Amino acid sequence: MTGTDPSPPRHLPVMVAEVVEVMRTVPPGLLVDATLGAGGHAAALLDALPGHTLLGLDRDDAALALAAEALARFGDRVELRRANFDDLADLGLEGVSGVLFDLGVSSMQLDEAERGFSYRGDGPLDMRADRRQPTTAADIVNGYDEMALAAVLARHGEERFARRIARAIVAARPLSTTGQLADVVRDAIPAPARRRGGHPAKRTFQAVRIEVNGELTSLGATIDRAIDLLAPGGRCAVLAYHSGEDRIVKERLVEAFTGGCTCPPRLPCVCGATPTVRLVWRGAHRPGPAELAANPRSESARLRAAEKLEVARP
After folding, report:
1. H or E element, residue 243
2. How large is the C-alpha radius of gyration of the chain?
3. Neighbours of 131 (CB within 10 A)
4. pLDDT tens digit string along 197-256?
């Protein structure tokens, strides 16, 4: 999975060396790639950790087909399932060695105009990761009222011109293609603002995509569940690409790190909170200069990681 900026070679896994390093010390056992994509991270982990097996999850049939081809050489060390990351709670797993989430949209989806994810090509307003689900981007763009549409753009895209864009979209309905939507958004934004911050439709497309796929709806609970599934010494690593999802990831990892402690900062804990993880590092790691040069879409990536404690500490 990657971020949403201009075009490098396809299917480059983001911060793959850092992800492998995070998982290098986990106990032998099962790794779960909960957002498999084309299998780039999974292949790197299986190469680096020969004592591990891997379960790969994805709701995109095209991604699963690509991953099956890329991971065929690992034989029965790999199992692939058609599932969303929030299905973790229903898979009967326990004592997992590591869980990886690579959030956002994949290069494969962005580069295929017919999937409707990108403002850079003209395709149908689709944006569904799971093409069996009924709701498409067209349903949201043409069906939400102006207030609801502005709320989506502000909440998921942090779009400062959300109201202007929503008003313009409603006035231009019906819209059926990504090109039409991109043009309406561009024309709705004041000219000085169009000249900075990348493509003027970037935030709108991000917001609609998140709404279509419900990307933030269950993320917090899924991070909590992943931590519950880990064996002692197991690790959870999360790559996020925009502030909304990164904020949720940070909150859930910090909650597990503090055990939900409510005591004043820098004072001893007396509330009985029990931490369940340690943070592998403080804050988020970012891609280095070499990766940014090779894969500009990685620019917005933030990697956070936590390790399950052997014994819960007071």
Report:
1. helix 243-258
2. 20
3. 12
4. 788 999 999 999 999 999 999 999 999 999 999 999 999 999 999 999 999 999 999 999
Exposure string for 251-261, b = 16+ CB within 10 A, e = fewer: ebbebbbbbeb
pLDDT at 153: 97
Cis peptide before 174 (omega within 30 of 0): yes
Model confidence pLDDT, tens digit, residues 9-42: 456 899 999 999 999 999 999 999 999 999 999 9
Q: What is the pLDDT of residues 245-284, one digit of tens each?
A: 999 999 999 999 999 888 887 788 888 789 999 999 999 9
Evaluate whether 8 touches 297 at the Cβ level (below 8 Å).
yes
Cα–Cα distance measured from residue 27 to residue 61, given in angstroms and rounded to the nearest whole number: 31
Residues in the chain: 314
- Contact between 181 and 141 (Cβ < 8 Å): yes
**Across 157-170, average pLDDT:** 97
- E-strand spans in 179-281? 230-240, 277-279
Q: Are 208 and 152 in contact, with CB atoms under 8 Å apart?
A: yes
- Residue 305: strand pairing partners: 237
Q: 252: which 2 tokens?
A: 């859930």
- Cβ of 75: how many Cβ atoms within 10 Å? 7
Q: Which amino acid is at 243?
A: S
Report residue 36: phi and psi, to 5°: -60, -40
